[in-house]
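Private note to self, pasted from the team thread so I don't lose it. Backbone tokens:
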């Protein structure tokens, strides 16, 4: 068995064909910086970010709908802070609030229960954004809404699922050789969710933890698989990720949500990539079926977020990076969110 030093030495000395590996989630991107992973591996192994930031792929129409609701009389939008600065086609939620809209930041969706109970004459809409990682908490929120017979709290959902997105990336970006699967999402959906992708696209899909040694070991596993002409799903994060995932959480999610087509900002429509409230719970939906006419592909002028999300470029290759686009004055969503690749690259570039 190789030690970490052996693995680093192997990766530093790698001199085979160039390899492009997509790390799908922002937590891996941040850890790659924190641990100086790029400095420990050969230049022939390129690490690029993927579409795993839910805020970054939320469409302008969705933000527009939230802003519109916040400005309606006796209505209030409840949201996580990450969503505040993302631009819609006209304004962000920060700007809607400045224009008189009622927008409140919460740290947990469950806080909205008490707020709705204490303000019976107001209509509340929770901005339910996320991947499979956060979907269970929205299912629990739905349980609480039902249990407490709350009638003035609904969800506007932009919940996305990662496997259809990875399938889209594999179809669209043939030069990506392998994937570091998102750790947190994998805890919920399980490692087996990637087996079919690995077989269909003949690429390694490796589930890894977030420590530097986890990422290095996963990159080494990918190099070994590619050198051997293999394409397997490998779960290297068994402490947290089981083969089948968190079945209790998925059961709760499936009770309230069902799959639907959805638009991803910067990507377009991906079939069966959304979780929407089931028809029997539609009274709790605040109009999430915004329609697919908004292709979501339009980005602010000069913004290369679509290329960043699809792994075509690294954030520093965007001409606006660190010039007109910074976290304080973000042009695109990838600079706004704590999980966005541009924001992570910017913060770490300044360290
Ligand atoms: Fe978009 Fe800004 Fe990133 Fe460029 S630097 S891709 S404008 S978020």
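Design output:
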């Amino acid at each position: 068995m190789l030690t970490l030093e052996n693995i680093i030495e192997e990766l530093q000395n790698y001199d085979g064909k160039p390899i492009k590996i997509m790390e799908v989630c922002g937590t891996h991107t941040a850890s790659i910086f924190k641990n100086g992973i790029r400095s420990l591996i050969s230049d022939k192994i390129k690490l690029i970010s993927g579409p795993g930031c839910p805020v970054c792929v939320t469409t302008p129409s969705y933000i527009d709908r939230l802003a519109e609701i916040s400005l309606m009389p006796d209505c209030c939008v409840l949201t996580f802070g990450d969503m505040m600065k993302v631009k819609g086609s006209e304004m962000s939620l920060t700007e809607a609030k400045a224009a008189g809209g009622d927008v409140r930041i919460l740290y947990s969706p469950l806080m909205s229960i008490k707020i709705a109970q204490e303000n019976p004459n107001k209509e509340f809409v929770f901005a339910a954004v996320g991947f499979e990682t956060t979907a269970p908490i929205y299912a629990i929120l739905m349980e609480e809404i039902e249990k407490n017979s709350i009638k003035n709290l609904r969800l506007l959902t932009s919940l996305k699922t990662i496997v259809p997105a990875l399938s889209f990336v594999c179809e669209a970006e043939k030069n990506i050789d392998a994937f570091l699967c998102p750790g947190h999402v994998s805890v919920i959906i399980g490692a087996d969710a990637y087996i079919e992708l690995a077989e269909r696209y003949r690429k390694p899909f490796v589930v890894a933890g977030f420590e530097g040694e986890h990422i290095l070991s996963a990159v080494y596993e990918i190099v070994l698989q590619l050198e051997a002409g293999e394409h397997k799903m490998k779960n290297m994060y068994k402490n947290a990720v089981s083969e089948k995932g968190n079945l209790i959480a998925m059961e709760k999610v499936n009770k309230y949500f069902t799959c639907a087509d959805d638009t991803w900002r910067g990507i377009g429509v991906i079939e069966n990539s959304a979780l929407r409230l089931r028809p029997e719970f539609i009274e709790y939906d605040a109009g999430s079926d915004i329609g697919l006419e908004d292709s979501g592909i339009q980005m602010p002028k000069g913004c290369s977020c679509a290329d960043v999300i699809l792994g075509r470029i690294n954030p520093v290759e965007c001409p606006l990076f660190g010039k007109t686009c910074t976290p304080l004055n973000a042009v695109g969503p990838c600079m706004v969110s704590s999980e966005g690749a541009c924001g992570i690259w910017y913060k770490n570039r300044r360290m």
